[in-house]
Structures are given as structure tokens and as C-alpha cells.
Amino acid sequence: MEITEEGRTELETILDIVINQIPNYFNLINPSSDDWSIDSVDDFVFGMVFNSFIAKSTEYLKNNILDNDKEAKLDSNLEYFETTISFFNENVPKIRQSITANSNH
């Protein structure tokens, strides 16, 4: 699935929203990290960012396709997932940098 320029802009906005939640993820995890036996809080936060971004961006892509084509069938969930994974992978350095900047080591 090819991402339009408008779609790319929207995915960037979604990613920025999720990245802005990183301090909240640390505040949520740090007090409980010992009780939960988390080896790497940074990796745990990365997983939370990943999960949040994939959920929000996949929903956006589905809704966008339905808005633009009322006859569209949403049978290609895997295609939406692969598109969002690819976009996420392009932005891993940006995400890691933000996690490192917010880490409370």
C-alpha cells in the first residue's frame, strides 16, 4: 500500500502525539518496574510507543480508505499493518532519541 503525502503527514502527526506521551509512559512504569520484573524500561517504553502508534495509525488508514471509497472492503488488514510498520521502522531513530532524552536512569 502506497502512502499519499497527506497520509504520510497524518502518520507523522500520530507519531508525534505518541512520542509526546513518552514522559507519561515513564511516569507510569518507573514506580512499578521492580514489581513487574522489567529488564529494560527503555525497551518497555519503546514497546508501548510501538503498540500505541500501530493501533492509532492502522485505524486512521482504515477510516481514510472508507472515507475516500465507500465501496472499499477492509479485507487487507495485513496491508495496513505492514504500511504502518514500515513507516514506524523509518522513524525508529527519532523514537529512540526521544526515549533516551526522557529516560530517568
Task: Provide structural commentary.
The chain is mostly helical. It has five helices and no strands. It has helices at 5-20, 22-29, 41-68, 77-90, 92-102.
Instruction: Give the CA-based shape.
Output: elongated
Mean pLDDT: 84
Rg computed from alpha carbons, rounded to a whole number of angstroms:
16 Å
> What class, by secondary structure content?
mainly alpha
Total number of strands: 0
Q: Residue share in helices?
A: over 70%
Q: DSSP strand (E) fraction?
A: under 5%
Any low-confidence stretches, pLDDT <50, length ≥5? Answer: none
Report the span from N to C terminus.
40 Å
Give the structure's gist in a few sentences.
With 105 residues, the protein is mostly helical.
Keywords:
mainly alpha, 73% helix, 105 residues
What topology emerges from the helices and strands here?
Blueprint: H1 5-20, H2 22-29, H3 41-68, H4 77-90, H5 92-102
Helix pairs in contact: 1-3, 2-3, 3-4, 3-5
